[in-house]
User: What shape does this take?
Amino acid sequence: MTSGTHGALIIAAGFSRRFGSDKRLFKLKHDEPLLLACLKPYRAVFANVAVVVRSSDSELTQLIGTHLGRHAPIIVPTDHAHLGMGASIADGVRALVDWDYFFLGLGDMPYVLPATLELLNARMDAARADRQPCIVVPRFAGTAGHPVGFSRDFFAELIALTGDRGARAVIDAHSSLVQRIDVEDPGVVTDIDQPPI
Assistant: This one.
């Protein structure tokens, strides 16, 4: 096992324009808000979890603290969400520059399985034990998904991100260092963009 700090960074600073309301607060079955459902598998697997929210998200931040208590993630506020996901990722990575690696997840993907996170983390951990720069990408039925793991070798490029493409540019620029892991977990490609019918 590597000795460096690692964990997950969840991006949840979007404006839910297609959803029609703040989907992070949308209640899934069992009355669980979407963002809390997204955080649950990451909290089960990683000792360290950070979540990027807008600086104005006092209600959401309070909800996280109330429901998760001492298991609540690190809250990373951003004033740059309006500039696109890349800017939110950049602010998140700035907050964890001392980590050795992290997995980048999205706050509208609640169905990722803990077993999948454990598998991805084991692959990254092995690469870091060998000091290899590494990007870990899960694939379901040939489609790349989330979360994507980044070793600290890529933090500077992630901090430089802008716009709405997210981290795709960093992945594309280092294709030879990407380890693609096929998983039997549709949760890695399932997001919630619209209210369920």
